[in-house]
Amino acid sequence: MYIIKTDDEAWEAPISHHGPHYIEYNPDNISAVIHDAHSEPTEEKDDSSQEPQPYILIRRQKPVHDVGLSKGNLVLNWPIPRRILDTDSSIIRDDEFTHLRYTAVTCEPVEFRSAQFTLRQQLFPVPRHTEILVVVSLKDEDAWSLNQTIESLCNSIDHICSMTSEKMWQHEGWKKIVVCVVGDGRSVVKPRTKAALASLGVYQDGIARESVVGKEVTAHIYEHTTQIRVEWEDSRQVSLKLAARMPIQMLFCLKEQSRGRVDTLDWVIRAFGNVIEPTMCVFLDPGTIVKKEALYHLWRALESEPLCAAACGQMEIRFSLKSFFSNPLPMVYHFEQKWNSVVDQPFASVIGFAKVMPSGMSAYRYLALHNDDGPISRYLAGAAATDSIGSRFRSQLAGSAMFPLEILTQRHYRWLLRYVRASETVPGIPYRIGHFLEWQQETNKRDFYASVYGIANLFSILRCQHSILRKSLVVFSLLHHVLELVMLWFSIGNLYAIFHLLSAYLCAPDLAGNAGFVIGRILTWFYWLALFISIIQSFSSRPSATPARLHLSLSFFWAVVGVWILFAFIYIAARTTSFNTTSYNATVSNMRFFICILPLPLIYAMGLLIFTFSLEPWHMLISWLVYTLFLPFKINHTNTYLLHSIETLFSNPMQEPDLPEKLPAVTSIGGRIRFGDGDLDIDDAAIDAKWYSNVMKFAAPPARHREKRDPGVILRTVVLSTWVFSNFAIAGLVTNLLGPGWDYRRGKKFAEDVNMESGTIYIGVVLWGVSWLVMVKWMGGLWYRGRVIFDCIT
């Protein structure tokens, strides 16, 4: 029983054992509303022997002073602002659409179900089956990014529910999809982002409690089925409109403390997933725009192939040529994403080991995630003891590499991980140099962790039920990762060695002579200066903490170095190649330099062929030159930030967030919980005023702030020194032992002698090694495209 006090009297109303009567949504019969959400509750006969209700229905009256607990937990069914309901006269007035369900969780995720917590989908007379659980992991992203993702998800849900040819979605498919937004810490999630959710009715200020009867609250859960969308009229104003077709079931979990992505997935899989038991979980990042058909194609991939445990889509870059040529960063970003979707992911999918990540647009079969011996137990091992170096190591690996391999190698299963090219998402394009470098840092970190974890678990593939051929292909792909990791580690030294050798060759009297010597010397001096600056500034682990002008200056210089290297390759090859020979040995000797640099045009030819085979040759033609000139900047500047990622493998990367603001507590007197006067103000005017304040926060432009500087860490210095020393060592050995010395400068050697140099052989080994790594993936990409075309024909 709860007590509601009015101005002149206090009356008692019993707690209903069934809670609000949720009316099943029927778009053809909107008037079928039995319960008026705004009417006063009717009195019922009290029967304390019955089970308590799963929540407490709060009506629009004066402040509530004390109420009973629901199975020992604080659960409130809170009215949403009238302004949302007044948006359109056709809005359904059922409790599902007019009330926000708030739950103060006082346990850990693994105890969620045993502690008698539940979710709204289980409270209907016939519990709803959840086919798809869409998870948006929210940290400190801005409101605009979150709103873009939610809006695109609404369109994708509308599309999948319109697929009446599929039996699953023939009748009210929206009830089988839940969109879950998980905020990593109450003090971390920005106020404007919470305001964006409040504008949809999914969040309200003033409801959350800090503790319930002495038990600390670990998470705040808000549930609401929204019928409205948010539209930006301009940069300052937003407007609400009625949903075009389907309502959206939304769940907002705001964690009290920031514990990272591992804890977020713990809440999703072992708490929420254990209650609603979805068929598949889809993970998204805020800012990712989901194309209309993307969600359907991911679901279809898992539905049509029972052995498919996970699937990921591709990223489609939206661009205009005008913006590309005015800013080369989106062009580089576009090329890398396209290469990944055309070459890397198809190669991995052919093997059955696509790199699906929890942070990307990827779908997981819940059965493959949630079992006692599944990957979730290992994935969450790193979160249990943050003081252990080994646990932090596992925690860092979990965020990028553990899921795919652990799913693939589960005992007694033959799970496969597929790439679904038809499922497209549009990521946010980094137009600013700081944001671009942070994206590069995260990409390098992900690939490095994947390689490290693959090496450490190379033979774990033997425990699964895959065929010998499949196991061999997976081991081959892991060894391929090892070679890529080696090339990445020594990339700085190899690039400088090639730069030095080419500059020395150009000093030959019949090539560039003195002009080549002067230009090469000047570039060498600035090369060392720029490399030194890049290494020093990488101690600030976030690229955005460094002034953008420094990044831009270094990028311009490294582009000049790229032009110089490209010119040297073409010019020296043209001057040193002779076809006027009759014997095979003489031909090889006279064309040695050309043969050594042949991988460069070969790589571009393979890329153009596979892009053409994918019906997208313009992507290669538009971006390849800019990306080529960007490579020195990526190797010498961007990759230095990788060392910070290596350092976080052995140190705690979590920084202490700001303390969240104090919330009211819930006390108990005589077995009942008590609120302070005015703590739960449910007056219409008060609720609308708070909602309007949130909408104004959402509409207002975000405040600018300076990026924080990161402190240096001793371990980071040790790792960085090791990497730099190993690269300088290989560069020194090559330039001194294999280099031509000053003979070209003194005029003792000429162009034809370049073919006989040991340094030329070294250039050939490096370039042919890179081309072999690319060729392997290229063949996998061709096989994938051929299989897709064959499936379409048959």
What is the mean pLDDT?
74
Give the structural class.
alpha/beta
Radius of gyration: 30 Å
Number of helices: 25
Low-pLDDT windows of residues: 1-65, 705-713
Percent strand: 5-15%
Q: Roughly how many Å apart are the termini?
A: 65 Å
Largest beta sheet, briefly? 12 strands, mixed
Helix content: 40-55%
Give a count of the beta strands, DSSP E runs of length 2 or more.
21
Shape: elongated
Strand order of the largest sheet: 3-5-6-11-14-8-7-15-18-17-19-16
Give the SSE layout:
Elements: E1 2-5, E2 10-13, E3 56-57, E4 64-67, E5 74-79, H1 82-85, H2 95-98, E6 99-105, E7 132-138, H3 143-161, E8 177-183, H4 191-199, E9 211-212, E10 215-216, E11 219-226, E12 228-232, E13 238-242, E14 248-255, H5 260-276, E15 280-284, E16 289-290, H6 294-304, E17 308-315, H7 321-326, H8 328-351, E18 362-365, H9 366-369, H10 375-379, H11 381-384, H12 389-408, E19 416-426, H13 433-456, H14 468-489, H15 491-505, H16 513-537, H17 548-576, H18 584-590, H19 592-597, H20 599-613, H21 617-636, H22 642-647, E20 665-669, E21 672-674, H23 684-699, H24 714-738, H25 758-793
Parallel strand pairs: 3-5, 7-8, 7-15, 8-14, 9-20, 17-19
Antiparallel strand pairs: 1-2, 1-4, 4-21, 5-6, 6-11, 9-10, 11-14, 12-13, 15-18, 16-19, 17-18, 20-21
Main location: membrane
Organism: Aspergillus avenaceus
Family: Belongs to the chitin synthase family. Class I subfamily.
